[in-house]
Amino acid sequence: MCLGVPMQVIRADEHRALCQSAAGQSEVDMALVGYQPEGTWVLTFLGSAREVLEPLRAEQITRALAAVEAVMQGKDADFDELFADLADREPQLPAHLKS
User: Fold this and answer.
1) Distance from the CA of 73 to the CA of which of 23, 44, 66, 99 falls in 20 to 30 A?
2) Residues 67, 77: contact at Cβ < 8 Å?
3) Is 27 domain-assigned?
C-alpha cells in the first residue's frame, strides 16, 4: 500500500524540491505539479509530488496518518481530534458517485 505524505517545499528548482515532513527532509520530483515556491504544501507518493495542497488539507492528512500510525503501534489516540474534519458530520459520497 502506498500512502501519500504531505510535505512542505523548503527550496525548489524547475524539476526538484527539497521538502520537509514530520519524518524529515527529502528530495521530491516536481514534474507532475511543476515548480512550487517555498512554503507550498504538496502531497507526495514514492518521492514524487502528485498534488498541490492547501495548508489545512495538509494538516488533515498529516493527522490522519498519525492516527494510522497509532493504530499500527497499538497506541491509544484521540481519534476525534485526529479526524476532527470527519467526526461531527455524516460521510458524503463524492459527486461522481451520487448519480
Assistant:
1) 44
2) yes
3) yes
